Structures are given as C-alpha cells and as structure tokens.
Automatic annotation (TrEMBL):
Gene3D superfamilies: Ribonuclease Inhibitor
Pfam family, one: LRR_1
Superkingdom of this protein's organism: Eukaryota
InterPro entries on file: Leu-rich_rpt, LRMDA, LRR_dom_sf
PANTHER family assigned to the protein according to its UniProt record, in alphabetical order: LEUCINE-RICH MELANOCYTE DIFFERENTIATION-ASSOCIATED PROTEIN (PTHR46282:SF2)
Protein name, UniProt field: Leucine-rich melanocyte differentiation-associated protein
Amino acid sequence: MAMQTLEDSDTQLILVQQNLRSLPQELVKQHAEHVELLDLSHNCLRDLSWLGEFEQLRHLVLDNNRLHEAQLRTLTQSLPQLEVLMLNKNEFSDLPSTMRLIRRLFPNLQYLSLHGNPICPDGLELQPFSGYLRYDYAYYSNYIAQSLSKLKFLDHGLVQRTYQYESFPISSYGKQLIKTTSF
C-alpha cells in the first residue's frame, strides 16, 4: 500500500483516510521530533503506543477511528505538552474511565471534543434540544470540567466550572437544585 502523506509544513502531519491501524515506525522516526499537529482522522487505529514519541505534539485529531477506552490504554506515556485533543465520532462509552485516562495521558489539555461518542449527549442531530438532553449535557460537561482542571473548551463551547441542574433520583420526587463547583 502506498502511503500518502500530506504535509502542510514540517510541524504538521496529516494522514486522513489511510486505513491505518497504527502509525508505521518509519513515519514515527521521521516525524516524531518536530510534528506539532497530527491528524489521523478516518482510520482504523487500534494501537497508540507510538504517540509518546511525539514530544512536540500540541494538537491531535483522531476523529472517526472507532476508538474506545482500550485504545487509549495502549498509550503508556503521557503527553503533557498536548493542548488540543479531537476524539469526535468514536466509541467512547464510559465517562469516568475515559476521563481518568485523558487526565493521566494529557494532563495539560485545554481543548477537548467528544461529539458523536456514546458518552457525549450532544444530540446535535436533534433540533431543538429536548430538556433531557440539556440536563444530560450539563451533567456531562460539568463532570469533564471537574476532571480536567486546565480545560478551557469542551466540544463547542467554553468550559464553565459551575452549573445548576436538577439532581436525581430524588426520594421525595420534588425538584432539587444542586450547585456544583470545581475542586
């Protein structure tokens, strides 16, 4: 298979729709020292262990890869320099587990997008949003904001560190507001 590498500059490596399961070692050796933006969208990635070698990486796009928590676990070395992580349209389904992994692997993350994953109740295809989706999204975004203290942007907006939302279950079936704040 001929690998088609599209590079806008020495600091960007874009390998979209290449049917990759992992990044070939020759590409890692060739680009790891200088790449700041890596886009591997629309592939079939299963192994991310090589990512730790990209010490200059600040922006990582892994949209549409059918990724789930197990693939993040293949990355054993953290990337403290990473600021932007795009994981849209994957298969992340366990919010606490995903946040623990992201917090450990990308401790200085400022922008995260998880649209189109089972853990993200964005309902972008539904117009207008139902009240249930608004509640779920508020819970989801608050959970992530509290998990990732340096996060500034989540999905499509600024991170807010304080939310008010209805809690459940409520034994008296009455409405109760809980105000949450970051740690």
